[in-house]
Amino acid sequence: MGSHELHRRRTAYGVRRTAGFTLIELLVTIGIFLIITSVLLANFRRAQQGSAVVGAAERFMTSVEQIRTLAVASMPSAPDAVAFGVHVATEPDDRYTLFGDLPDGTRGSYDEGEEIADGTIRLPSDIRIAAIDPAAVADVTFAIPRATVAFTGGNDANALRITFAHRTSGD
């Protein structure tokens, strides 16, 4: 019996080759890869949603600063205004309004028709105003000319908390 016949016989009787992967090893590897990928994608999506909420809150704060600046400068965008303010409500929950408070309406709060030009600010479609504390409707006003701040919408409101959230996640 030559060495060639011996080699053939060993492979014929099932001596295992060491090169390559078995089907089970490949399936386990793919399963682990899919689990890790799904966890990473979920965290990425949550981070994107959180970023959108932070962006909406920062834009709101920029609007408040803009209104405060209008009150200090007494800009002619609303020459009869006694104050400038930001009106926010949970219904509708997709916008807030910048306004010039006129003396013929309710002083210190928003009345229909007091919006300044381009004063209705819409939130991105996936962001909503989730809560306003201490009330569901609130106004932040800055009296002319010193921009003295006042809050309306709650009992003795000297602070206001507005919560923005993502529509799908609630965060």
Q: Could you provide a short overview of the structure?
A:
This protein has 171 residues and is an alpha+beta fold.
Characterise the protein shown here.
The protein has about 170 residues and is of the alpha+beta class. The chain contains two helices and seven strands. The strands form two sheets. It has a five-stranded antiparallel β-sheet, covered by helices on one side. A two-stranded antiparallel sheet has the order 4-7. The longest helix is centred in the first third of the chain and has 51 residues, at about 25-75. It is rod-shaped, with a radius of gyration of 32 Å. The mean pLDDT is about 80.
The radius of gyration is 32 Å
Order of helices and strands: HHEEEEEEE
Unreliable stretches (pLDDT < 50, length at least 5) are none
What is the strand arrangement across the widest sheet? 3-2-1-5-6
Provide the β-strand percentage band. Answer: 25-35%
Observed structural traits:
171 residues, alpha+beta, 5-stranded antiparallel β-sheet, rod-shaped
Question: What are the SSEs and their pairings?
Answer:
Layout: H1 3-12, H2 23-73, E1 83-89, E2 95-101, E3 115-122, E4 127-133, E5 137-143, E6 148-152, E7 161-166
Antiparallel strand pairs: 1-2, 1-5, 2-3, 4-7, 5-6
